Amino acid sequence: MLTPDVVKLPKENVLAGAASPISKCVGVVMEYTECGLKNAIRMASTNPAKLFSLNELGEIEIGKRGDLIQFTMENNRMNILKTYVNGSLVHSQD
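-> structure tokens emitted (94 positions)
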């Protein structure tokens, strides 16, 4: 079961881990490391894709899958406006 801050196993009602959306983590890493948005996005997308050999993800390039988000940043918090998966719009805040 996912709660706002933790993941619990519902049957046993015990802690299974912590959860935080990547949209929140980008701002936290910017504050903690004092890096810019470009580097924070790279840490959240390109680097993990390379680490796990997900060659079709993590970069905007011909032949890549095309998973993208359109967002704004307000007070180091990411506000996701639109989400595209494999080039198709799957979420819009409108």
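The chain has a mean pLDDT of 87.
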